[in-house]
């Protein structure tokens, strides 16, 4: 069982996922700081105060703070847009990797030659 666990952990996909989660957590804090400290104040400057956290309603003894939920939605949309812009910028910078082409079997080559001959004969008519 220990051997199986070692094989599972040492797989590339598991290690890549672990690195992705760790970097994602660090990246989340950077983007959250960007949104909280730069973008939200800038939006607040142009649109006025956008803090809805005080909005709430009561039903009996229960308090529903829907304003905090609205703030969370706004922050999510801003973070999603910033991440979109970052990924788009990185995709422009990074070259695309071409997928390796599989070798073509002899049967596929013969079929392609037959298709080419048929196309050529049909275009001559």
Automatic annotation (TrEMBL):
<dbReference type="InterPro" id="IPR037673">
    <property type="entry name" value="MSC/AndL"/>
</dbReference>
<dbReference type="Pfam" id="PF01741">
    <property type="entry name" value="MscL"/>
</dbReference>
<feature type="transmembrane region" description="Helical">
    <location>
        <begin position="66"/>
        <end position="87"/>
    </location>
</feature>
<dbReference type="GO" id="GO:0005886">
    <property type="term" value="C:plasma membrane"/>
</dbReference>
<dbReference type="InterPro" id="IPR036019">
    <property type="entry name" value="MscL_channel"/>
</dbReference>
<dbReference type="GO" id="GO:0008381">
    <property type="term" value="F:mechanosensitive monoatomic ion channel activity"/>
</dbReference>
<keyword id="KW-0406">Ion transport</keyword>
<feature type="transmembrane region" description="Helical">
    <location>
        <begin position="12"/>
        <end position="31"/>
    </location>
</feature>
<dbReference type="InterPro" id="IPR001185">
    <property type="entry name" value="MS_channel"/>
</dbReference>
<dbReference type="InterPro" id="IPR019823">
    <property type="entry name" value="Mechanosensitive_channel_CS"/>
</dbReference>
<keyword id="KW-1003">Cell membrane</keyword>
<comment type="similarity">
    <text>Belongs to the MscL family.</text>
</comment>
<protein>
    <recommendedName>
        <fullName>Large-conductance mechanosensitive channel</fullName>
    </recommendedName>
</protein>
<comment type="subunit">
    <text>Homopentamer.</text>
</comment>
<keyword id="KW-0813">Transport</keyword>
<comment type="function">
    <text>Channel that opens in response to stretch forces in the membrane lipid bilayer. May participate in the regulation of osmotic pressure changes within the cell.</text>
</comment>
<keyword id="KW-0812">Transmembrane</keyword>
<keyword id="KW-0407">Ion channel</keyword>
<keyword id="KW-1133">Transmembrane helix</keyword>
<keyword id="KW-0472">Membrane</keyword>
């Amino acid at each position: 069982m220990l051997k199986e666990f070692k094989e599972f952990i040492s797989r590339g996909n598991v290690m890549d996922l672990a690195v992705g989660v760790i970097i994602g957590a660090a990246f989340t804090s950077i983007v959250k700081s960007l949104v909280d400290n730069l973008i939200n104040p800038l939006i607040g400057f142009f649109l006025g105060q956008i803090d809805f956290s005080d909005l709430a309603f009561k039903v009996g003894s229960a308090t529903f703070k829907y304003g905090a939920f609205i703030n969370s939605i706004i922050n999510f949309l801003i973070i999603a847009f910033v991440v979109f812009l970052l990924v788009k910028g990185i995709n422009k910078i990074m070259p695309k990797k071409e997928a390796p082409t599989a070798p073509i079997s002899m049967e596929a080559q013969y079929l392609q030659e037959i298709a080419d001959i048929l196309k050529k004969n049909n275009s001559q008519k």
